[in-house]
Design brief:
The complex is a heterodimer.
Chain A (H helix, E strand, L loop, with lengths): L16 H23 L3 H9 L4 H32 L9 H36 L7 H20 L27 H29 L12 H33 L12 H34 L7 H14 L15 H29 L8 H24 L1 H4 L6 H31 L5 H27 L14 H31 L41 H12 L12 E4 L4 H17 L3 H19 L5 E4 L1 H33 L1
Antiparallel strand pairs in A: 1-2
Helix pairs in contact in A: 3-4, 3-5, 3-15, 4-5, 4-6, 4-8, 4-13, 5-6, 5-17, 6-7, 6-17, 7-8, 7-9, 8-10, 8-13, 9-10, 10-11, 11-13, 11-14, 13-14, 14-15, 17-18
Chain B lengths: L8 E2 L8 H34 L17 H28 L13 E8 L2 E6 L4 E4 L1 E5 L4 E7 L4 E5 L3 E6 L5 E5 L5 E7 L11 E7 L1 H13 L3 E2 L1 H8 L8 E3 L1 E2 L3 H6 L31
Parallel strand pairs in B: 1-10, 2-6, 5-11, 12-14
Antiparallel strand pairs in B: 2-3, 3-4, 4-13, 6-9, 7-8, 7-10, 10-11
């Protein structure tokens, strides 16, 4: 046993130029950014305002930034995969199988765990407390721990790029291939520990949000007055609480197999590899809905706001959401109809999977009727929503097709399947994240994003999605299986060339989004959102300033109906002045910043890394450090800061003044319209 | 020579060459048509409504308070429900009719074939005929095929798209699958589950021959080639991609059962490293530097 466990110089890809150069480049960029921040004296600001922040809005923004950075990483993987398959007709391409297998495994892992999840959790963090009309989530420090643990997982995945290697068995490491006997390297261990660490963070997020939504709501906000996004967030977090322990337990079993010679999944020694498939999908299928339900909530908000109408069939939407939440746990077997289960088992799970299409279909129809009779403003968030409705309907159709067992017998593990889940995840989750991002960006930062570049991004993404994955359906029907590093079938080649073109179009979409950010930041002074309500919104997040003060609301709103903010605005327009009188300003206690999350994640990263490389003394050190952090936090004396009443008054009066001015403008506008109408 | 006269090789599951894949294609098409009847109008309605209610359209009738309608609710819940009832029926009947383990109705008795997925090749044993073939499946047309499938390494999926149903091959157990080729041809077969570096090369051709020609092939096969017993089988276990298919003139009886029951232990499994040597002089197509 050596001091550094399995870690030797051989772990570094000194003889493989591609990972070496990319790794070194990323490392240099990171060092450069840190040096720049340090030289400009931003470190105290970052530490005070962001790293130790327990403010749900800041944490939400950091989640979204983590997701964006990882999207770039995962997208580079996508470019490599598409390029390889475009080149590898009767040729080896540029990626050998051992490298190609790592790339598709990393692509899937990153896109699901470190892009889609942070996007959705980030938007929930930013918006749910605002929509509920409260000051923060139930456990603000825990929230910060959740975020930093997720970031620690993402760091470990990226570390595998330069130290050792990543998993080569796909984004879900099925045994027997992932067992120590067949995957002796550190790849599967990197996967498992990264997901274990971030999984704990996600579970804590689930607990935090379920508690927040069930227990912390503004006075008068009954369950049936909650905005749809809060309902879908509730459903999604209930699923997290129920499903993520399954993931943790499953990966723990795999780790026990790999580290201490257990036999949960080894067929040769009394275990059963099929058990892993069942367990991982008992988490994996609910996971799909954990991602897409919040997206449904975002689309509900967006469609309603930009159709200038309340959501159609609100109660129906609640039933649909909760139905999906429950049935999500009853369909996992459709991921392995071809494993030889009996006909009755297959058809029951097939039908259960189809049943999910009913509430989902209801949702599509309800959004359609929300637009019906409204005034549909085709701003960027609304474009994402319409692009979603069209594309997701097709993706849903291919999904129901895959739920028919005899059809699945010919489609399972083919590119048709891969096209299906890219179709629904990009059109559903990613478009949902982008709709939410453009819709709530002004709330987070106080200025509106550039519309022209936003529309460019939308069209490029939409066209790119279909150019990249439309041919995927076709080539899947021509018998192409997934994860092929090379092939010698001439019929597949042209379609794979088109798919590579599609990923290029999406690349342009991403560039448009980067340009949108740069342009919008540089012209932010012309695009300020002074009132806090840039889209003529309907729910409480628009009732406070943009960006909101740390305490969100000077006085907690009193909710009397669905769409409380729309009611306030309507009354104001009727009486010609702000509907709510100036409140009695009082000092507000807010949770104190805490480095607990950052420090815990620091030790968690060390623990994870040393477990991967079998550096046992460092494992112990990391665990002791993490526990000491917890004890240190538990023994704190002061956990709140008081925001003085004068500060509250100053911020709120400024916002009220802006709103009053805006109201007068609107009244004058309406008056002049009436004059000219006569 | 027996095999050389069949013309090109097909692979799409939409060009069925047997009753199973034909039935599966029918279910696939029926389901798509049923769903398109809802999906197409829905998509057109989404686009139409979004465009019609644009702010500048003076002819659109605005109803900002239209937020609930019992009639609409009934319709939006029942349309998808009806589709699912319909499709659910298809799924139920189809799953039972096309259950992989269900014997096919036929005048002729089924031909038994035992399939073993290895790193990175396919072994087909014909227990009743006493012969075996590597990386080429030869079958008679019009005769039901009873395949028993297992793996001597990691998981795999056996799939011949033009014949139908794919199924997992797993170590320590055997799956059952019934297929049939209804006309002559060469059909592409492949592995549909990642199993290490040799995965992309793990494909084979299925040759469907008339009964006469199949009998000739069996006779020719019995006439030459090595014998497959436990010792030669152990050689097969080593990872390799054979440069071309080959056959065994005889097979040790009960070998497949021994493989399934793990009496013959499974292979070392796919490794990135050492290129394997095939017993017939194969090579590893992707020699990769040791990790």
């Amino acid at each position: 046993m050596t001091l550094l466990g399995k870690l030797t110089w051989q772990a570094f890809p000194l003889d493989e130029p591609l990972p070496l150069f990319s790794g070194v480049a990323v490392f240099l960029i990171l060092i450069g950014i840190i040096l720049w921040i340090w030289r400009n004296g931003h470190i105290p600001y970052l530490w005070r305002e962001w790293i130790t922040s327990v403010d749900h809005k800041r944490i939400g923004i950091m989640y979204f930034m983590l997701g964006s950075v990882m999207l770039l990483r995962g997208f580079i993987d996508a470019i490599m995969l598409r390029t390889q398959q475009a080149m590898a007709f009767d040729a080896p391409g540029f990626l050998p199988p051992s490298h190609f297998d790592q790339v598709f495994s990393a692509h899937g892992t990153i896109m699901i765990f470190f892009v889609a999840m942070p996007f959705m959790i980030g938007l929930m963090n930013l918006i749910v407390p605002l929509q509920l009309g409260v000051r923060d989530v139930a456990f603000p420090t825990l929230n910060s721990v959740s975020f930093w643990l997720t970031a620690a997982g993402a760091l470990l995945v990226n570390l595998s790029l330069v130290v050792g290697q990543f998993d080569r068995t796909g984004w879900l490491p099925y045994p027997p291939l992932s067992e120590l006997r067949y995957s002796p390297g550190v790849g599967v261990d990197y996967y498992c520990w990264a997901i274990q660490i971030s999984g704990v963070g996600t579970l804590m997020t689930g607990i935090n949000f379920v508690t927040t939504i069930l227990k912390l709501r503004a006075p008068g906000m009954h369950y049936t007055r909650m905005p749809m996004f809060c309902w879908t967030a509730l459903a999604s977090n209930l699923l997290i609480v129920a499903a993520f322990p399954v993931l943790t337990a499953t990966l723990a079993m795999l780790l026990l197999d790999r580290y201490v010679g257990f036999h949960f999944f080894t067929d040769t020694a009394g275990g059963n590899s099929m058990l892993f498939m069942n367990l991982i999908w008992a988490w994996g299928h609910p996971e799909v809905y954990i991602l897409v339900l919040p997206a449904f909530g975002i689309f509900s908000e967006v469609v309603s706001t930009f159709s200038c109408k309340p959501l159609f069939g609100y109660r129906s939407m609640i039933y649909a959401t909760m139905a999906i939440c429950i049935i999500a746990f009853m369909v996992w077997l459709h991921h392995f109809f071809t494993m030889g289960a009996g006909a009755t088992v297959n058809s029951i799970f097939g039908i259960a999977s189809m049943i999910i299409a009913i509430p989902t279909g209801v949702k599509i129809f309800n959004w359609l009727f929300t637009m019906y009779g409204g005034t549909v403003r085709l701003c960027t968030p609304m474009l994402w929503a319409i692009g979603f409705m069209v594309s997701f309907t097709i993706g849903g159709m291919t999904g129901v097709l895959l739920a028919v067992p005899p059809a699945d017998f010919q489609l399972h593990n083919s590119l048709f399947l891969v096209a299906h889940f890219h179709n629904v995840i990009i059109a559903g989750v990613v478009f949902g994240a982008f709709a939410g991002y453009t819709y709530w960006f002004p709330k987070a930062f106080g200025f509106v994003l550039d519309e022209r570049l936003g529309k460019w991004a939308f069209w490029l993404w939409l066209i790119g999605l279909w150019v990249a994955w439309g041919p995927g359906y076709i080539v899947g029907l021509e018998g192409m299986t997934r994860r092929l590093q090379s092939y010698d079938v001439a019929e597949w080649h042209p379609w794979l060339l088109v798919m590579a073109g599609g990923v290029g179009i999406i690349l342009l979409g991403i560039l448009a989004q980067i340009a949108q950010i740069i342009v919008s930041v540089r012209t932010r002074d012309q695009r300020r959102d002074l009132t806090g309500d840039p889209w003529d919104g309907r729910n409480l997040e628009w009732a406070t300033s943009s960006p909101p003060p740390s305490f969100n609301f000077a006085a907690l709103p009193n909710v009397t109906d669905l769409e409380p903010y729309w009611d306030i605005k309507t009354r104001a327009r009727e009486i010609g002045e702000l509907a709510r009188p100036e409140p009695q300003y009082e000092p507000i206690p807010m949770p104190r910043n805490s480095p607990t999350g950052f420090v815990t994640a620091f030790f968690a990263t060390i623990t994870g890394f040393s477990l991967i490389w079998h550096i046992w003394w460092l494992v112990i050190l990391g665990l002791v450090g993490a526990y000491a952090t917890f004890v240190g936090f538990a023994w704190r004396d002061h956990d709140e800061v008081l925001i003085p009443a004068e500060e509250v008054a100053r911020l709120d009066r400024a916002n009220r003044a802006a709103r009053a001015t805006r109201l007068q403008e609107q009244m004058a506008e309406r008056e002049s319209q009436r004059e000219s109408g006569r | 020579m027996v095999l050389g006269e069949l013309g090109g090789c097909g692979r799409a599951q939409l060009q069925p060459a047997g009753p199973i894949s034909a039935a599966e294609r029918k279910i696939l098409f029926d389901s798509v048509v049923i769903m398109l009847a809802i999906v197409v109008p829905t998509i057109l309605a989404v686009l139409g409504v979004a465009w019609w209610y644009r702010p500048s359209n003076r002819r659109a009738r605005r109803q900002p308070d239209f937020v609930y309608s019992g009639r609409v609710e009934v319709v939006v819940w029942s349309i998808p429900a009806l589709v699912v009832i319909f499709l659910g029926g298809i799924a139920w009947i189809g799953s039972h009719d096309l259950d992989p383990a269900k014997p096919l109705r036929s005048h002729s008795p089924p031909l038994d074939i035992q399939v073993v997925s290895l790193d990175w090749k396919w072994l087909f044993i014909y227990p009743t005929l006493g012969i075996a073939s590597v990386n080429r499946l030869v079958v008679p047309t019009g005769v039901p095929l009873h395949l028993s499938l297992t793996s001597a390494s990691v998981w795999n999926v056996f799939w011949v798209p033009q014949l139908g149903t794919m199924i997992y091959c797993m170590s320590g157990m055997a799956d059952n699958l019934y297929l049939e080729a209804s006309h002559r041809g060469i059909f592409y077969g492949e592995s549909a589950m990642i199993d290490g570096n040799g995965f992309p090369d793990m494909h084979f051709n299925t040759h469907a021959l008339s009964q006469d020609r199949f009998d000739t092939w069996v006779r020719t096969t019995r006439g030459s080639g090595p014998v497959l017993d436990e010792q030669t089988y152990r050689g097969l276990l080593r990872q390799s991609v054979p440069p071309k298919p080959y056959t065994y003139r005889s097979v040790q009886p009960g070998l497949f059962a021994d493989i399934v029951m793990l009496k013959v232990p499974p292979g070392a499994g796919p490794r990135g490293g050492v290129p394997g040597v095939d017993p017939i002089g194969g090579r590893s197509v992707h020699p990769v530097a040791a990790p």
